[in-house]
Amino acid sequence: MRGIAVLLCAWVAGLACGWGICAWQAQPAADARPLPSAIDIGFAQAMMVHHQQAVEMAQLMLDGKPTQLARIARQIAANQLLEWGELRGWLKLWEAPFVPESGRLMDWMLLGARAPDAALTQYLLDCQRAPTGMAGMASDAALMQLRDGNGGARDRLFVRLMLAHHQAAIPMIEFALAEARIPAVRALATQMFDDQSREIRQLLLTQAALRHGSAVTDEPDEAVILQDIP
Q1: How far apart are CA 152 and CA 142, in angstroms?
Q2: How far, in whole angstroms, is CA 2 from its chain's centroid?
Q3: Residue 142, exposed/middle/buried by CB under 10 A (0-12, 13-18, 19+)?
Q4: What is the pLDDT at residue 157?
Q5: What is the pLDDT of residues 163-194, one digit of tens each?
Q6: Got the DSSP string for 97-119?
Q7: How much of the chain, in percent, has pLDDT values that exceed 70?
Q8: d(CA 221, CA 226)
Q9: Burial label, 126 (beta-carbon count in 10 A; 0-12, 13-18, 19+)
């Protein structure tokens, strides 16, 4: 119950923050504020979908089954629910749909000031090949396995899925940092980059601890397990 209460508080706070930005931006001003670009809108749409699955995976780990990962699952769910609320608030303000009408979630990453480099091209190809249209997303079969699993095997699966999920978000975040028009979008992208980079590090340390058969703690012994991290 405590985990659910924390997540509900984060969700409400995210919505309040998003609507607060909406109210501020909707007020008339002497200087016209910039209109969102297709990149701003696309980033918000894609990240809403991406965050929804991260929250779903984290909530599965808070279903009452024994796990060593309740703390990091709560942390991820709370962070992403808060950001999800902001993204949703922006799209409401901009009168934009929550998903692209074309159904193609990643087309906005083709709209940068420069042609995609080799790394971005490969990332977009990975997205195109993915069943969900986004790289790093867990399959329905993997989510079912996470839902039905138990014990250490389930913990290891969660870490593997969430690592792939977080790592695949970084190119989207970096693109928004470089190309988004709205300052608040760039500010949230900066926050996402910091949060997800820190959580990736935590997940890598956790993965190594689980591999060693060590207990997962709030402050893992990096000297023991750092050698496992690329």
Answers
A1: 16
A2: 22
A3: middle
A4: 98
A5: 999 999 999 999 999 999 999 999 999 999 99
A6: -SS-TTS-TTGGGG-SSS---HH
A7: 80
A8: 8
A9: middle
Token representation of residue 63: 């279903």
Taking Cα atoms as reference points, which of 218, 209, 199 lies closest to residue 79? 199
Match 């397990």 to its residue by tokens.
225
Task: State the pTM of this model.
Answer: 0.82
Q: Mean pLDDT for the chain? A: 87
Strand ranges (DSSP E) for 67-226?
none
Token pair 């808060």 is at which residue? 82
Domains for the chain: give ranges and CATH numbers.
2-25+35-228 (1.20.1260.10)
Average pLDDT over residues 219-228: 52
Position with higher pLDDT, 213 vs 188: 188
Q: Can you read off the two tokens belonging to residue 25?
A: 């931006």
Q: How distant, in Å, are the alpha carbons of 53, 63, 116 from that of 149?
A: 18, 11, 40
Q: Would you say 61 and 69 are in contact if contact means Cβ atoms under 8 Å apart?
A: yes
As a dihedral over the C-alpha atoms of residue 116, residue 119, residue 120, residue 124, rounded to 10 degrees, the angle is 120
- CA-closest candidate to residue 182, choices 107, 51, 190, 196: 190
**Alpha carbon distance 170, 47 (integer Å):** 11
Is pLDDT larger for residue 130 or for residue 214?
130
* Tokens, residue 49: 């979908």
Question: What is the rounded distance in angstroms from the CA atom of residue 185 to the CA atom of residue 189?
Answer: 6
Sequence letter at residue 97: P
- pLDDT for residue 215 is more than 80: no
